[in-house]
Amino acid sequence: MNSTRDLLAMATAKTWRPDQPISRLVGVMRSGVLAVERRIADGRRVLCVLFKQGDLIDLRRSERLPQGQLLALTPATFLAFDETRFDAYLSTCSDTATIVQDQLREHTARMRDHAVDLACKTPTERTASVLFEFKRWPPVYEDDSFRLPIRRRDISDYIGVRAETLSRCMRSLESERLISFLSPRQVRLTDIPTLRRIANGGRPRRSKPVQ
Amino acid sequence: MNSTRDLLAMATAKTWRPDQPISRLVGVMRSGVLAVERRIADGRRVLCVLFKQGDLIDLRRSERLPQGQLLALTPATFLAFDETRFDAYLSTCSDTATIVQDQLREHTARMRDHAVDLACKTPTERTASVLFEFKRWPPVYEDDSFRLPIRRRDISDYIGVRAETLSRCMRSLESERLISFLSPRQVRLTDIPTLRRIANGGRPRRSKPVQ
DNA sequence: CGACTTCTTGAGGAACGTCAACCGCAGTGG
DNA sequence: CCACTGCGGTTGACGTTCCTCAAGAAGTCG
To answer: Which whole number is the average pLDDT over A131-147?
Structure first.
């Protein structure tokens, strides 16, 4: 669409290597994975958001200072916008403004989903849930297999679980024949209905021992 | 500002009683508290977002169906917009569109903060954090006291902790003279620096017993 | 006062975080 | 070719923590 092309014309392409911190706050992802990293007092680390190809990034905050650090989890390419020119353009082109608003709404909807995962799901349920999230990321294959886009350490910081626990949950799902690893990074979901049930709360904490 | 007044003129006022589910997806909060409630398979309940006075609500989702139910936690009044007229108005008035975009960005920023709480903080830390969140809500008093705007059950579902655990955390903070209860609903923060340290990760899990 | 909901307190146990050690792999240098 | 190093990931042991269940206290409304 025309308006989007105009917008892209005013952008400058940037590339980042893994672990490289990023100061720009507005842009569009072209490839790779970025995340907003936050650390609290004693070093605990959280990745509150992941950005993949096609995502609009706009971390500006009107009232308070921006919290957290944008950084690359994989080699990433990015189209950076000059903030003031970006805003000026949006106010002249309502089509593009609508697209941006849709992106922002979609982003908040995904964050609500993620908040549900973090607030009440068990580690196994979170693992299943994040696997579905990654399955939807491009590129999408037909055989329900996909490549884990980021390190397990980063996945665990994203779903609020220790790396050791994530490892055990992955192994547990694998031993139940629900997923299988073609390589350490390549996963296939072999029983999607059961996995979906688990991801939606099908593996709660047991209060009594199983008889 | 003029544009906002025009927008408000095309809205219809609504009131809700507690626990009343709400089907409208776009509007502005005038009073009370609304929340997006989600339940997963075995009945676990999460409040992924809270909306207070002044917040813009826009839960529309472009790609998939909206997840979760908007409901009132207290008696609430709300200005509901007709969705198509709202969008049409935004495309003609860039000032208002900018305001809406700012609101959406601020909202995502708050959700990132909340994700950090949920992902890695201990129940005591989450309690301190949510107390600061409520302290910022209107009305703001000078003596660092405020009224808990919602039931404890709802607070606990918001911060991803059982109601019993929240109760114990509140009591623990009270016994340390960090907060005090003027009434079951009225709280005063009596040691804000310490509380802020705790809210930012100052009360981690102990792996070794204290000697 | 009684019926109801909300909140609190207590006891008990599974689970997940913590620590430590190990494995596999890639890169490096002798 | 091998030893060494560093990183990412895995496995095991252990104990605090917080969830679960149950019952009681406190507040609310008729």
So the answer is: 92
